[in-house]
Amino acid sequence: MNYFSVLIMLLRDRANFLSEIRQNIKIEQKIIALLVSSSIFFAVYGLIIGSSNSWLQSASSAIKLPALYLITLVICLPTLYFFDILMGSSLQFAQYLALMLTTVSVISVLLFAFAPVTLFFLISIRDYNFFLFINLVIFGITGLVGVSLFYQAMQTLVRPTVLKVRDAEPIDPEPGHQDMRQRLLQGWLVLYALVGSQLGWTLRPFFGAPDQAFQLFRPEIEGNFYQQAIIIVLKLFGF
């Protein structure tokens, strides 16, 4: 329950939670708590979407959905860290990890909140393409909210180091560095979305068509997530 109390503190008082991250207060406890609680919420949602096929697919998705978000974090976090310290950030790697896990945790909570809606459509509508489309929208909304909150946190918490010169006033980094850092952050967010979506394509299936046998992974690697998303929309509208 302590794990979930940390998550509740994040949801109820996000500003204070982020301030503690900046002050390096109980970072290890926050990392472990957010990692455990977000994995549980992702697993619950994975159980639901995988049940469109079989109990094996449900169990597989309960494992692969948390792995999708955590592996994406592991792949992209070093790029963010090294580019940001190059731009003058004074935060440690563990603080960046905690900051990223707040984003992942928010996404997991939002998916958990959508779980009853997803379960309702799974039970009431026997249209696999519609079910895929609904989840595509849900994943898009939750991801957009999580990334937006992360961008706001990075803008307010991760400030460049102030340069100190003997017998002189502190000197802020050049304004051009701030503009470059902002562009790099925006580019990194695009990279994060690309890596996450393509990794999801690589780890598929998460759903599994009702008329197909269970597969842990799809053998074919052709195509990408965006092509499949367009195909889903076209099939839904009868094209």
Q: How far apart are the termini?
A: 49 Å
Contiguous runs where pLDDT drops below 50 for at least 5 residues: 161-172
Strand percentage, roughly?
under 5%
Judging from the principal axes of the Cα atoms, what is the shape?
Answer: globular
Rg of Cα set: 20 Å
Q: What is the count of β-strands?
A: 0
* Share of helix, binned: over 70%
Structure description:
- The structure is a single chain.
- With 239 residues, the chain is an all-alpha fold.
- Helices cover 75% and strands 0% of the residues.
- The chain has eight helices and no strands.
- It has helices at 2-12, 14-22, 27-50, 55-86, 93-124, 128-157, 175-203, 225-236.
- Helix 1 (2-12) packs across helix 2 (14-22) and helix 4 packs antiparallel against helix 7.
- The termini are far apart.
- The model is unreliable at 161-172 (pLDDT under 50).
